[in-house]
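lol ok so funny story. i was supposed to be doing the assay writeup but got distracted and ended up predicting the structure for this chain instead. priorities right. anyway since i did it might as well share w the group, maybe its usefull for someone
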Amino acid sequence: MDSVPESKSSATRITGVGVLDRCVGLLDLLADCPRSLRALADASGLPRPTAHRLLVALEAHRLVTRDQAGTFRLGPRLTELAAVAGPELDLASVAGPVLDRLHQASGESVQLYVRSGDHRLCIAARDAGTGLRDSVPVGALLPLDVGSGGKVLLAWSPDGGRRLQPAELAAIRERGWAASVAEREPGVASVSAPVLRDGALLAALCVSGPVSRLGQSPGRKLSPIVVAAATDLSAAR
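and the output, tada:
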């Protein structure tokens, strides 16, 4: 059986699950620096076909990526997972009851977003079950500069003014919520509010649904319950 020589990062985390241990060994090597397939095979002790097979699988999950020269490096999925593994992970774990109540009160889909680089990452959701495009799965990466969830994240971020007009960001902060109509998806409207703790932004809580139900001014209908739910979630521990 192929094996990865023990290293300072992998020696203490041998699980006995061979494929997992070999994949983690490759990721540990890439944490030091980008490497070619040959370099990874030599450093790991894996036959090149085995190393290539594992790296291609990791690439499919976006845990590693390759440049045009074929050099492997750590992939963007690790950044996304790291974003969830911070304080937001605790937030997602306690958000369930708040999301359930907001889903029941609104009758629409509910999402909880955190910022992940230049995107927003959905870390928790409740689906309205209508099959419409307002449904967003956990783990989805969406733009920051379109949709109410992204606008809330930008409004409480230092670099928000580089993506949206300062006047729009100021208005969102003043009223405490953002709304959007058919910005990210045709026919979908949404309202979002910030989840703040000790003045720091943790996430954006969003309700989305069809424009046919929410209308052209969804904030009039949804902002009170979305803001109240965001306040409840801010206090959750």
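The radius of gyration is 21 Å. The first helix runs from residue 18 to 32.
back to the writeup now i swear
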